[in-house]
Recover the amino acids of this structure.
């Protein structure tokens, strides 16, 4: 493979937890995703891969679908006996759809795992993750705002994003919109370019807006189109905000919040199976008319 100096970003998984189709869902989108003639392709759970040379890669969030994602993306496949181009994994929160894939990466392969202290403790406190051989898999705790290099030449920082604790840590009604180590975004810098990955966000605060302003690319939380989407579709009882995700449309939605920030490319990821932007229609047209793109598995961005 010829080496390049590009900042390469591959959307390994564009869907939210459960993927598309979700295993136990018969909503319109899931039915279409099961029908090969519908034009709506199945999508795996939220993850990005980034490289500077096309040889060494860092993966942001270890999706439960990571085996399939590696199979679907040749740059991440082994090039010799017992090899992986994946050098590091970075976690943005402790949700199942972002860390369960670590169990797939247990085959005596060396890599470094980066996370905040809070997310790192979730991994450390669950004995099932002891399958990651500590002699091969090193775990690095990153402080909020601390610069680190998941790959040589790639500068990264984790920053707090309004959110909540993972569902399995909820005890009663959780605090919503808290900013701390449980939900973070990632800032990436290389070659004068700035890229942000924010797969979960409860609200765009003034400080977050200032951070994202004038960015080259922002991959942003597109979980639900409307806050009450799951209630209206009969697929759940919670609003998007109760789940820690701001809606795309409506008052306080990300369409308006990101529209005036002069971001060169705005790409929705972590899209729920119920979200109507997956298919052609007025909702998708509204999003695209505002200059947003809908991420999809295998989408590649080069800077």
């Amino acid at each position: 493979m010829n080496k390049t100096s590009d900042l390469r970003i591959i959307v390994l998984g564009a869907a939210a937890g459960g993927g598309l189709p979700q295993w136990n869902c018969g909503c319109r989108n899931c039915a279409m995703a099961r029908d090969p003639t519908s034009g709506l392709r199945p999508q795996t759970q939220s993850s990005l891969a980034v490289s500077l040379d096309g040889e060494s890669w860092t993966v942001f969030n270890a999706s439960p679908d990571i085996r399939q994602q590696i199979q679907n993306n040749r740059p991440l496949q082994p090039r010799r006996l017992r090899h992986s181009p994946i050098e590091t994994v970075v976690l943005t929160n402790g949700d199942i759809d972002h860390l369960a894939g670590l169990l797939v990466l247990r085959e005596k392969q060396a890599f470094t795992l980066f996370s905040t202290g809070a997310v790192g403790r979730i991994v450390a406190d669950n004995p099932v993750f002891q399958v990651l051989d500590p002699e091969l898999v090193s775990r690095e705790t990153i402080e909020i705002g601390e610069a680190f290099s998941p790959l040589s030449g790639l500068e990264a920082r984790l920053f707090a994003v309004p959110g909540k604790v993972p569902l399995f840590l909820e005890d009663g009604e959780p605090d919503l919109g808290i900013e701390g180590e449980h939900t973070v975004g990632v800032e990436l810098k290389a070659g004068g370019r700035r890229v942000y990955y924010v797969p979960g966000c409860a609200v765009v605060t003034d400080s977050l807006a200032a951070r994202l302003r004038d960015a080259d690319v922002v991959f942003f939380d597109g979980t639900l189109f409307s806050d009450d989407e799951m209630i209206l579709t009969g697929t759940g009882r919670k609003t998007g905000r109760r789940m820690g995700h701001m809606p795309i449309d409506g008052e306080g939605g990300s369409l308006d919040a990101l529209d005036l920030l002069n971001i060169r490319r705005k790409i929705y990821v972590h899209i729920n199976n119920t979200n109507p932007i997956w298919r052609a229609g007025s909702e998708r047209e509204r999003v695209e008319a505002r200059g947003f793109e809908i991420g999809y598995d295998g989408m590649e961005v080069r800077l």
